Protein 1
Amino acid sequence: MIASKLEFKSPKDIEEAVRFYREFQGEAVYLSGGTDLVPRMKLGLEKPKAVIDLKRISPLTTVEDQADWIRIGALARIFDLKQNELIQDFFPALEASLEATSCESLQMRGTIGGNLLQNSRCLFYNQSEFWRRSKGFCLKMGGERCNAVPGAKTCFANYCSDNAPGLSTLSAELECTGPDGVRWLNLEDLYTDKADKPFNLRPGEILTAILVPKKRTAGGYKKLRVRGAIDYPLLGVAFSFVDGTGKLAVGAVGPKPYVVEMKKPPQDTIGEAVKAVLKQVRPVGNTVLDPDYRKRMISVLAAKLVNKVMEGVK
Amino acid sequence: MDRKYTVVGTRMTRTDSLAKVTGRATFTADLKLPRMLCAKILRSPHPHARILNIDTSRALALPGVKAVVTAADAHGVKWGVFKYTQDHPMIAIDKVRYVGEDVAGVAAVDEETAQEALDLIQVDYEPLSAVFDPDEAMKEGAPLIHEQYTNNINVHVHIDVGDVDEAFAKAHLVREDTFHAAGEAYSTLEPYAVVASYVNGFLDLWVPNAGPHVRAKALSNLLKIPLNKVRVRHINVGGHFGSRSEVSPGDLVTSLLSIKSGCPVKLVLTREENATCTRQIHDIQATIKTGVKKDGTITAKEFRVVYDGGAYSSTGPIAASIPYYVYEEAYRFTNVRYDGYRVITNKGIRGMYGAHGRAFLVGNEMQLDMIARELGMDPMEIRLKNGLNVGEETATKSSIISGGLEEPIRQAAERAGWKEKRAALHEGEGIGMGCVAIMCGFPMGFRSGSACYVKLNDDGQATIVTGICDTGMGNESMAIQIASEILGIPVEDINLVNADTEVTNLDPGAYSQAASFVGGNAVKRACEEAKRQILSIATAKMNHPVEDLDLKDRMVVSKTDPSKSMPLRWVVREAFFQGKPIAATGAYMPKIDFQREWIKNPYGQMAGTYSFGCSVAEVTVDKETGQIRIPHFVAAHDCGNPINTMAVEGQIEGSVQQAGVAVLTEETRWSEGRLLNADLLEYKVPLACDMPEIEPVIVRSNDPEGPFGAKEGGLTTRMNAYSAVACAAHNALGVVLNEFPLTPDRVLKALDAAKGGGKL
Amino acid sequence: MARCKVTLQVNGKSMELDVKPSETLLETLRDRLELTGAKEGCGLGACGSCTVLLNGLPTRSCIALTAELDGAEVTTIEGLADGTELDPLQKSFMEKGAVQCGFCTPGMVLTAKSLLNRNARPTRQEIIRSMSSNLCRCTGYKKIIEAVEAVSSTESPKK
């Protein structure tokens, strides 16, 4: 049961959606597939006054070849995207991460925009209201302390999008439409680096498209999880080789993907790239599996992935 | 297929599956009764605290709230499976002992109102120091959780046979190892739910249970309502695996709400509540010492096992004994000492589980492999050498009347290609074996037996009435199959009334591996008696010797002369005429030693018979990531004789998930008395893509006591699959694996420890 | 709280519903329409017991808001059989022993149904991939996969 009382709005276009948002003075949320939002509402992590459904706004679901870019509508479903020929031909890292996302049924429901904008996660945070009240609210809930790392003053929740690392290696850009109009930003600029509030979105902004430079790439994605489906990544490593340069991105071990441009040739500079990532990441005990292990697997998965992809390139 | 029988031994489509594939099988949460209210429970936010005061007045005043209950509405009775473990009031009286404990209940017109009412109940707590680790809990000065359990030791099971110390002194080789496994969650897909309806002194209850009679008795005691007025009704159960056997706080609270409100009340637990506020599975630490002769004969065994029991005793003595028993039932121990300590901690309550005991059982089997390697023996040979055979006795004096360990080992090994595969392993590959034996029935005093009634209607169809309980494994279908075989009528002619305390007679329930052996035997005897009645009427009506008559295809037939036959229904009608309707009772009490007691006297015949099983797992390990895959799994289970081959396979295959793959993935994770992975996302129940290719092997030993030779239908796999996988991983890695589950981080830790000079 | 008017086709029958905005499809099916075949196993979309077909696709109804589904077609397990004529998948699940406690069964059957509607002859790996969306605690999945395989190798699916 979703305990809160709320209103439901079904706008027919972006303008109407933004208008509804304004109407509720910011206490509204946008709904795409609902696979992140609805569980959060059920746990009482999100108590909006209104839910604004974006799914009736049709141009948001298409994939278009725009000469220099492939434009991916933010409401395109994961399942549909992974079967899209343009994505399969040009962006194997993205195809791999789409396939690795969750499970088939949830891929049919979840959208790429929703996947990117999923809230960060932590074993001590993604709990029922009863659990969290009994423990005491943490930093991410507006409380005074971190429950996962005693004494910590910053939030350690993990951003677990499977597709963000791959899109990062593809130098993706985002198109956002909001009360102040349309703006474009690099995917990397979406992230605040603060796990309690991970995204640099302005109030009322809607992620409307993801734009990927249309270049043939080689690439892949390796996901660390306990089971072979459903689970969020405990570590996600993506790699793309485009225009003779390799780009590595590591996700699920912090509030954003960590992206490194690799020196050439990539198969010889893996250690250096991984070192650059390791300097930045600090996984803690807020997931299943030991954090030191997850950190250790960065170099293992990066090496396996880069070598496999570069072998295919030769 | 066994050609001796028509229906028994076939791959019969289960009689309950039609309702299930059409969505028409009713589970407790599906029930809707007129005027039914919705219940919610107020739970303790503290792991350990005194209750100073509860004020329910504001909740009662909320429109739509029809009743609020606390311990003041109960009778202060403390329940326990045994008299000496009566510690659980089901609704907290003066103290709470775990986060999630039931403190108050609300019944309201809808869920929202009930939820709102919970927030209006004011409870004043005085938090107390809590203890979460069993070793810490046993220390002097640890917070005392129950007055009656000194050092928080709930039970201490002590078994001593022979002269262990002398045997160790004389042994050629002695090894001691300690193993630890995290607790697990049953993860039945159906979360707990209760519908209680109290009308005119009668309490009707629908609840997923594994034994309605013991449930009714417990509630009768708790509520001080006469036993005949507590009626636990038949309902479908969405999985059990040991979690539904005892009375649960929700049963009492919902009943109290119904009594107080005068309306039926439904309580449906969330998945989180199901994981934290019903039963869970024990964390276990097992120290195992084994002494052997040069030829691999086990001469001495010593065990010290600590079970983290959570806040109340639940099945205490049983849980603290079973892992030992299923092992001593498989192997010959002439000198053995077992000390099992079940310890109380401020966590959710732990109960019995089909896959119980993994630290202990894996530890024993892995240690046996290490001993075998030191002696230059094949792990299969050392098991054959020490495995029990028919005619022998277990260390605590139970006779084996059928089976023995040898046949399952040989059949599993052959099907798995044990010898060939062991000789041809590549880097990162391993193969391992796990063995166990299972008692068909726990000693449960007068409740160890089962009784069944049969009646024939005037069209020649039958109704079977039995206490046999089906929690998903197919027991209902099994009862009908047995009846069909004996009465010579097809399955669709047989109705079943089962697991309803008003109608059905006592039965041990579905949690001690007794349904086929005990319950099935009672059904068989009842039907044989009905058959005797039928033939005694038919012999006169047909003017044909009774010894030559049989029942087949709805007819009474001559065994030797096919032209002589008579429709069964004619005989039934004749019986009515004579004032002797075909109505029969059959009962079966297993031949056990009723003086045997879990703590006071753990010796004597424990069960009527034992099943035996051996599993062989093949694994591949990635030494860089520590990830283990199980490409292939063979499980041989001696069920005596399968009543339904497909159902036995189903038990074996389900066990491979619950124990075999689970040993790689499943653990409950705790932080200061709070469960971190109460949901089905972070608690890792294996998925279809995680499963190995499974080959179930049914071993037939034709038990002399079991109905059609049958024994229990598959639990050996549930208790040896983890051993097989762990031993295979050990074989692949060459290092001791002491910590379970074998998640990849633990595997790498073990490899690192070995490189750093850790013990191999 | 303003309510929402939603027109749904449920098992071929069109119905106009007046629902709470916060109401999930599972609640609508079970509480309002008394179609209790879809089950609540976890309430958070992790187990698949609540799976129904939404416009032909397997969907976790416990995390779908009914308000967002105006105009949608919903098929529940109760709508799979054609009168008393069972769907081949239902028959196959029964015959192959793929049903034990039955709690996951409606979700499993519908997930398989959607797969076969989209791909009449899936490979074993494709079946496993689809069915890995749903948890089962009883069967170990083996007979479930076999039940789906048996139908996929013999028939083209009914629409």
Protein 2
Amino acid sequence: MPAHPNRTLRTYSLLFLFIFLRPVGNLALAWGTKHFPQSLSVNPSAYLRAMLDPFVALGIAMLILSVLTRLALLSLADLSFVLPVTAVGYILATLFGQVFLHEQVTVQQWLGTVLVFLGAALVGSTAHNTTEYEEASE
Amino acid sequence: MKWILLSIVVCATALSDILQSHEMKRAGEHSVGARGLVRLFQTIARRRMLILSIVCLAVSFFAFMALVQAAPLSFAVPASAASFIIETLLAKLVLKEHVGARRATGALLVLGGVLLLAR
């Protein structure tokens, strides 16, 4: 039984929304926390003040929205489909780190990031929802 | 410190994802439209395991916040992909999803990538 076209369209719309929200949210969060004067791992009481930083707040808002988007996505597709496809965010995070935060990214780190992405893309090309119906070609 | 933070992120994320997937499958299809969101919140309030998954998500998030502060974004985000390997195993063992040869190969590539990042 093939997937319903509407269901596929909804699945991919949510997927693209999620792919946009998470890396941009992560970038805002990283930007905000890195410019925050206190260390959060040493001083957990600083979390509340850190969250008042506009960049941290923006990052958190985008990430919360991405979580809600993903909950809806999980009601349409399997976790083992959702996770790998959204892994394109790992490449975007490394790129954003290098471009916007001026991080040194070695060739080996890029290779690692690309391997993560390739593995994810391979997994993403399999059936969307195996617990509800079985696809003939597996 | 960054390895402790990363471990917390990875374990809490994996647990949260497994609980979320399990509960949302049982809850049926949802969307994030205006009416969909209301129904989504109702579902969250009704399902206890979903609330637990959100607690795990909060733990993972606060650890992640400290991680992106202490470590480069280009390390923090791809290294947190380690949760994906644990999740693929749990998806097969706990959620009984079908994990074929392609998915298994993909998961192994991800593992290789994370190992390269770790060095």
